[in-house]
Every structure is written in structure tokens, then in C-alpha cells.
Amino acid sequence: MSNSTTVQSVDRAIAILEILAREGATRVTDLAAELDVHKSTAFRLLAALEQGGLVEQSGDRGRYRLGFGVIRLAGAASAQLDLARESRPVCLRLAAAVGETVNVAVAQDGATVNISQVRGPAAISGHNWVGQRTPSHATSSGKVLLAFGALRLPDGELERYTPRTITSPDALGLAEIRERGWAVTVEELELGLNAVAAPVRGRDGSVVAAVSASGPSYRLTPGRLPEVGELLVRGAQEISERIGYYG
């Protein structure tokens, strides 16, 4: 299947979801007519969406409606939006106190993804990490998510990004991170970039995110990391309480 055909199929699948959201349970023939495709094409698209739980057949034979998979996705998106919103005032204070960039990251599809960022007063210019997937073993947030079970390491040797990247799973010190309550990276993702992160817990007590501070190694020196780590632990606790954790 060519790229253009794949994109067209995705566009049509999205259109089906939008039609069902607007109209409710709809017959295949009506969906095909609105999409201007053959009925067999509409059936194939519906079958793929049904397999993913995004649509389901209603009680009326030949009609389809949105499935519970849509609710699951909406719930996940809503939770991330709530986390980004509730963490922001805490991140603003942390960024001001540390002077560096503060991020909130979550586990997504086996990687660490940043969903919120606040730049501190010293970070006049810097990389925008929001929406970016980063390798978990080479980032402080990722190490936190690994240590507390929100992510799992891939099998085998880990990818090296700098001469300081830890590529042996046993050398990541995940047990020490759990005991200490925060994780660090020292030039492990990029040369000249250091970071420290602490876990954020959800309502049930499980770790759902990590809050981190990152900056150039000449400012965020290894000697500062423990102090900043303790600040982040307190900030992470406040974020956890704001999203419903009271452990």
C-alpha cells in the first residue's frame, strides 16, 4: 500500500468516527454515501476500527456506533490535560527556584513523552521538549518511570547517545532511584546537558509521570543535583496531591 493510499484510509477512518460522533448509530450504506466510497470500502474501514474497539455494531443490524475504545482514548487524553494543567503552577515555582527548564513527562508507547514545559529565568533560550519522545534510559524522567514501573526496558543492550550514556540495564541504578526518590542524568542524552527528576503519583498511588529540571552542565552541576532533586520531590508531591493522590 502506498503512502498516499494509507493517508487516504486514515482520513476516511477519522471521517467515520466524526460522522458517528455527530449522527450516532449509522448504517454502512449511509456512511459509504457520505464518504463517497463503495460499500465494501466502508466495511473494510469499519472492520479495522472495530478491531481496535473504536466502533461497534449497535443493536440495529447493519448500524455502527462509537465503541468503548474511544472512551478509553478520551480518558487518557483528559488525564494528560488535567496533569498538564494542574502541574503548571507548581512547575512555574520550581523553574523560578531552580532557574532552569522544568518539564512534566509521561510514559507513552514504551517511551517518555514530555507534555508540559516551563522555562526558568536562566533558560533564555532552550529546546522545546513538549510532545517529543525521548529514550527512557538516557533521561532523568525516563529513569523515574522505569524505576517505579510505569515503563519497561527493552531487551538487550541500550542505545548510546553520548560517551556517558548508560547502556547496561543493570547499571541504571533503578533500585537506588526508588530508595532515594529522584533520578539524575549527567550528559547521558546530550553532552553538556544535565537533569534530575522525581515521580508524580496518581490517585491510586501508582507513578503516572515525572517532573524534571534540566540545564547546561556548567549551571546544573552534579553538585547541585541532590539539592534540586529534593526540591523536585516536594514539587512532585504537590502535583500528586493536586491530581488526587493523598498517600
TrEMBL record:
- What's the superkingdom here? Bacteria
Indicate whether Magnesium appears among the record's keywords.
Answer: no
Keywords in alphabetical order, please: DNA-binding, Glycerol metabolism, Transcription, Transcription regulation
Biological process (GO), any one = glycerol metabolic process
What are this entry's molecular-function GO terms?
DNA binding; DNA-binding transcription factor activity
InterPro entries from the UniProt entry: GAF-like_dom_sf, HTH_MetabolicPath_Reg, Tscrpt_reg_IclR_C, Tscrpt_reg_IclR_N, WH-like_DNA-bd_sf, WH_DNA-bd_sf
Domain spans labelled IclR-ED: 69-245
Q: What region holds the HTH iclR-type domain? A: 7-68
Question: What does this chain do?
Answer: May be an activator protein for the gylABX operon.
PANTHER family associated with the record: HELIX-TURN-HELIX TRANSCRIPTIONAL REGULATOR, ICLR FAMILY, HTH-TYPE TRANSCRIPTIONAL REGULATOR RV1719
Protein name in UniProt: Glycerol operon regulatory protein
Q: Please report the organism this UniProt entry assigns to the protein.
A: Nonomuraea wenchangensis
At the highest ranks, the source species' classification is:
Bacteria, Bacillati, Actinomycetota, Actinomycetes, Streptosporangiales
